[in-house]
Amino acid sequence: MTFSISFLLLLSAVITNAQEVTGTYQLHSKSDDFELTRTLTLNADGTFDYYNYRWVERGIPQDTHTYGKGTWTQDDKVISFFTEAESLDDKFTLDFSGTKARFISKSSRDKSDRSIKTALRFYESEIFWVKGMKLIKQ
Predict the structure, then answer these.
(1) For 32-41, 112-121, 128-137, which range has the lowest pLDDT when averaged over its residues?
(2) Rounded CA gap, 72 and 120, in Å?
(3) What's the CA gap between 50 and 31, in Å, rounded?
(4) Which domains does the chain have, with CATH numbers?
(5) 54-105: pLDDT as tens digits
(6) For residues 70-79, b (16+ Cβ closer than 10 Å) or e, as one string?
(7) What pTM was estimated for this model as a whole?
(8) Which among 118, 110, 68 is positioned nearest to 93, based on CA atoms?
(9) What does UniProt give as the signal peptide span (predicted)?
(10) Is residue 85 a contact partner of residue 93, using CB atoms and an 8 Å limit?
(11) What are residue 51's DSSP bridge partners?
């Protein structure tokens, strides 16, 4: 009986933590001759969708759209991404396998009035421009 109650409490904590992580994360930067939008959606079913839009006034091509999709898992504050080879095609070209990000949020124990935006900071990836990227939860 005690084991069952402990297991249910642990399961509840894991589910609550996963729900906290799910959602849409974004980076948006814009100037007169440049625009960059990166959007990552973490779904509750363990899948993700990634969209990258880049517009450069003097770029060739001027605007680019790149996509990625796959699955994600969470181990404490670390989010790991995986892309199956059969998911890659002409549209979904980004392989997120081996990519890891740290989940950043204000601790429930932090009673200060400082503002910490919930975000993902990528620290490991085979995609060179993903490493170091920070996406803010919308």
Answers:
(1) 112-121
(2) 13
(3) 23
(4) 2-137 (2.40.128.300)
(5) 999 988 999 999 999 999 999 999 999 999 999 899 999 999 999 999 999 9
(6) bbbebeeeeb
(7) 0.81
(8) 68
(9) 1-18
(10) no
(11) 39, 67
CA torsion sign for 129, 132, 137, 138 is negative
Counts of helices then strands in the chain (DSSP H, E): 1, 9
CB 38 within 8 A of CB 51: yes
Pairing of strands 78-82, 92-94: unpaired
> Contact at 8 Å (CB) between 24 and 138?
yes
Q: Which is it for strands 99-104 and 134-137: parallel, antiparallel or unpaired? A: unpaired
Q: For a pLDDT cut of 70, what percent of the chain falls above it?
A: 86
How many whole angstroms separate alpha carbon 65 and alpha carbon 87? 17
User: What are the structure tokens assigned to 1, written together?
Assistant: 């009986």
Structure tokens at 100: 């890891």
Evaluate whether 25 touches 137 at the Cβ level (below 8 Å): yes
- At 15, the amino acid letter reads I
Say how many CA atoms lie within 13 Å of 2 toward its Cβ: 0
Helices (H), the chain: 2-21
The arithmetic mean of pLDDT across residues 13-40, rounded, is 84
